[in-house]
Amino acid sequence: MPRSGALALALAPARPGPAYRISLKGAACALSVTLVASHAHAAAITVTDDSGAVVTLQAPAHRVISLAPHTTELIYAAGGADAIVGAVSFSDYPSAARALPRVGDNQALDLEKIVALKPDLLVVWRHGNVAQQIDALRALGIPMFESEPKRLPEIAQNLHKLGALMGTEAVADHAAADFTARIDALRARYAQRSPVRVFYQIWDNPPMTLSGQHMVSDVIALCGGQNVFASLAPIAPTVSTEAVIAANPEAIVTGRYDDSPHAGTDDRARDASSPQATPALPKSLDRWKAWPQIAAVAHDNLFSVNADWMDRAGPRIADGAGELCAELDVARRHLGR
């Protein structure tokens, strides 16, 4: 599974191989008995997930498995540290998530291991998991919440709903309010500033970007930017070098992976009011220096943001937004605005 969600959208998961076409009948029966017995006398909890499906639990979930890195972050933020019992690869935040049992990645889920962990709730990402395996898990009767936030307010909504499902409403509601307040503060500060045309690059060869359907486009607008490829139909389209030149972005931004000792810790990321040393630019931006006619190149407006903050649809996108907003202010200065 790619570390961040944006690239995973562009890479279609492989079909599960023979090793994963397994018989789960016995384990499924045991799991079914466990679920029925544990929920026999509880009051129902009902929410609607991001697919529009109604999710009903007879009691708060206390054995939750996360099937995407962003859902791992959401579960912890919503107060689920004591409830989460497994996660997929690259679920590395908060730091406690690194110790969770691994149940596969976006290429293949370990269905037997998932069932053996006896989950009473799966939190899944339809675009990041193998659809056939998700359907197989659903057929076993394991309650499933699909998390697919596409707009910034939907992150707060996911927190509220996961808190309801886990019985951790107080923590989840506080996290949602904090996230919303941070986003609102950034919007009030930056959204009306002089617009900057932005090309957000998620892959360099061939160039790939994110359209207006992706939450990153919302973040660009929040910072007073304009996504030059917002109108494209695919959520993660491939674009030609010629198309980028023709769009003439005033800033080119890509994700970087901060693997320094402080990366992935629980410290809040810097925002526009807390500057720190500028990270080295990823080499994937070097190719654009061959076209000095692009405004972003001519004005030295090549930037990077922490990819895990920006591309995962979790609360840390507020940290990524703060970083991007600060960089677009630098771009404005370089442009003489």
TrEMBL record:
Residues 63-337 form the Fe/B12 periplasmic-binding domain. Residues 256-271 have a biased composition (Basic and acidic residues). It comes from Pararobbsia silviterrae. GO terms for biological process: cellular response to iron ion. This is Cobalamin-binding protein. SUPFAM superfamilies: Helical backbone' metal receptor. Residues 1-42 form the signal peptide. The keyword Glycosyltransferase does not apply. Residues 255-282 are annotated as: Disordered. PROSITE patterns: FE_B12_PBP. InterPro entries: ABC_Transporter_SBP (IPR050902), ABC_transptr_periplasmic_BD (IPR002491), Vit_B12_bind_prot (IPR054828). Keywords: Signal. It holds the Pfam family Peripla_BP_2.
